[in-house]
């Protein structure tokens, strides 16, 4: 019985230290995973709750807004919008020629 308590007193702090160390290392590595320049490539713009386990999310990725349906089974891309496309279509034809060259 004494041997069991001695092992418990030695291994329990060791196990707690390993858990704490792995959490600390994970947090430190996540900070390094940020894209150069400190800005992430994807940004969550908005989420909407539809039903239990079903959400709609708008994600901005490289200047495009993507509407995604999120369920317990996975993600489905529903629509995609380029916010700069409307500006390109409104431009007069003569200014487009200057931008292309």
UniProtKB/TrEMBL annotation:
Entry keywords, A to Z: Cell membrane, Cell projection, Cilium, Flagellum, Membrane, Transmembrane, Transmembrane helix
A Pfam family reported for this protein in Swiss-Prot or TrEMBL: FliO
Subcellular location: Cell membrane
Principal place of residence: membrane
Record-given protein name: Flagellar biosynthetic protein FliO
Organism of derivation: Alteraurantiacibacter lauratis
